[in-house]
């Protein structure tokens, strides 16, 4: 969890529009053997101190002037004492490709921390987290927080193949390998199949009283359905395409039972039952 969070447990849910913060690249690296998943450590004391699990930062990519829009990234780890934040990102398009040329010492800026994070299941004792691919990013600080609160936590950690299970070691160190059921789409590690199939098995065996998930949209929809069938409260973190990131442009609108909501400031975390899953 972001370290400052423990002292603010009463702030179980947070909506924030973030502040503009200049920051500096402190460390960079690859997480997988092909360099398609990268880590980026930034000196960003404001975000490091104020971030709550599930919030994100909106990053301006230097020398990327053709693309005026910032790019949103979840906060993987924060160190409030050192004033640092760690992002883990997958190289997908022009923006994330440009980020691979960032150098240690380079200056950039973020808006953050932004959004409404996890409720952190205040009443729950036994929590199931379900992470697909880069969806593990916002679930890691949640796992830290839940563990610090003395709760039982299991994390279904899924990826397309073994090489992309880049978060496995960190989660195992945090919670013990026995609490991290692994699955891969191609069967190259752990259970051969989707996170939803593995989660369905676990739900038959153990009694969980809260679920949180992040990953591909279809996976989150599947988890929402499983949770509804099992009668377990569930939160989802929706990674909609974003433009302004401050609630002004409506490009990230999500249909909910309470009408249209903006993923950037009303989310990215929503109650699963609140979301109208259209596709
Ligand atoms: C709240 C939030 C938190 C996020 N956290 C992370 C994170 O921790 N790590 C990480 O790797 N990514 C994260 N993302 C997704 C990340 O923002 C996008 O991958 C990135 O903006 C792509 O920028 P680009 O210029 O490289 O790609 P673009 O050229 O903009 O798009 C390239 C491809 O990526 C797809 N894409 C772009 N944005 C998204 C998105 N939001 N969701 C799914 N697909 C997308 C496009 O459909 C397209 O196929 C997050 C998104 C949101 C909204
Ligand atoms: S990105 Fe503009 S309102 Fe959410």
Q: What would you say this structure looks like, in words?
A:
The chain has 279 residues and is α/β, with parallel strands linked by helices. The protein folds into 2 domains: 3-114, Beta Barrel (Elongation Factor Tu (Ef-tu), domain 3), CATH 2.40.30.10; 126-274, Nucleotide-binding domain of ferredoxin-NADP reductase (FNR) module (Rossmann fold, 3-Layer(aba) Sandwich), CATH 3.40.50.80. Helix content is 21%, strand content 31%. It has 6 helices and 16 strands. The strands form 3 sheets. The chain has a 7-stranded antiparallel β-sheet with strand order 4-3-7-1-2-6-5. The chain has a 7-stranded mixed β-sheet with strand order 11-10-9-8-12-13-16, sandwiched between helices. Strands 14-15 form a two-stranded antiparallel ribbon. The longest helix has 14 residues, at 217-230. The protein is globular. It starts with 18 loop residues before the first strand and ends in an 8-residue tail after the last strand. Mean pLDDT is 91; it is low at 1-15. Flavin-adenine dinucleotide (FAD) is lined by residues 56, 71-74, 88-90, 92-96, 134, 137, 239-242, 268. FE2/S2 (inorganic) cluster binds at residues 242-245, 247-252, 262, 264.
Uncertain runs with pLDDT below 50, 5 residues or more? 1-15
Structural class: alpha/beta
Q: Compute the number of helices.
A: 6
Distinct ligands:
flavin-adenine dinucleotide, FE2/S2 (inorganic) cluster
CATH class of the largest domain: Alpha Beta
Tell me the number of structural domains. Answer: 2
What is the beta-strand fraction?
Answer: 25-35%
Strand order of the largest sheet: 4-3-7-1-2-6-5
Computed Rg: 18 Å
The pLDDT mean sits at 91
């Amino acid at each position: 969890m972001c370290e400052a969070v423990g002292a603010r447990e009463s702030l179980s849910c947070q909506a924030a529009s973030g502040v503009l913060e200049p920051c500096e690249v402190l460390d960079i690296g690859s997480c997988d053997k092909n360099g398609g998943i990268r880590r980026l450590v930034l000196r960003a004391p404001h975000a490091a101190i104020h971030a709550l699990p599930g919030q994100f930062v909106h990053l301006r990519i230097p020398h990327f002037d053709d693309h005026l829009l910032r790019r949103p990234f979840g906060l993987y780890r924060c160190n409030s004492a050192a004033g640092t934040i760690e992002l883990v990102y997958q190289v997908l398009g022009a923006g994330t490709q440009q980020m691979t040329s960032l150098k240690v010492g380079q200056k950039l800026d973020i808006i953050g921390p932004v959004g409404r994070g996890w409720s952190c299941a205040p009443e729950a004792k036994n929590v199931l987290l379900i992470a697909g691919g880069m969806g593990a990013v916002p679930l890691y600080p949640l796992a830290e927080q839940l563990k610090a609160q003395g709760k039982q936590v299991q994390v279904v950690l899924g990826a397309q193949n073994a090489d992309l299970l880049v978060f496995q070691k960190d989660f195992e160190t945090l919670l013990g390998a026995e609490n991290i059921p692994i699955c891969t789409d191609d069967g190259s590690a752990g259970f051969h199949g989707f996170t939803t199939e593995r989660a369905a098995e676990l739900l038959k065996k153990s009694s969980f009283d809260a679920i949180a998930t992040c990953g591909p949209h279809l996976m989150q929809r599947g988890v929402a359905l499983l949770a509804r069938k099992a009668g377990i409260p569930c939160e989802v973190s929706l990674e909609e395409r974003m433009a302004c990131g401050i609630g002004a442009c409506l490009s990230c609108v999500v249909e909910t039972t309470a009408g249209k909501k903006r993923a950037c400031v009303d989310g990215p975390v929503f109650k699963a039952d609140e979301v109208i899953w259209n596709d």
